[in-house]
Amino acid sequence: LPQTYRDPNRMCDIVSIPGDDDPLDIFDLGEGVVGVGEIVKCRVLGAVCLIDEGQADWKILAVNTEHECPLSAAQSIDDVERIAPGRIQECLQWMDDFKQ
What 8-state DSSP symbol labels residue 45? Predict the structure, then answer.
């Protein structure tokens, strides 16, 4: 989301650390491939805050509703766990590994 960012000079009300001065990222929980910057219709299911170098790095968790896969029908995080057990943890682990 290019016009959104967390201010590094302001403490996040939820996690009490400053923002990372980057636009919010959307993390597609599905298995399809989407190019960086490509615009697709998605359904927001939740958010997770990662701590990256002492700053809040929020990720919006969503499913691409245009991609034909079982997860495109998910309406909630619970639906994701029912349709693809372990998918949320797998994605969180991927994010953690990516930051290493």
Answer: E
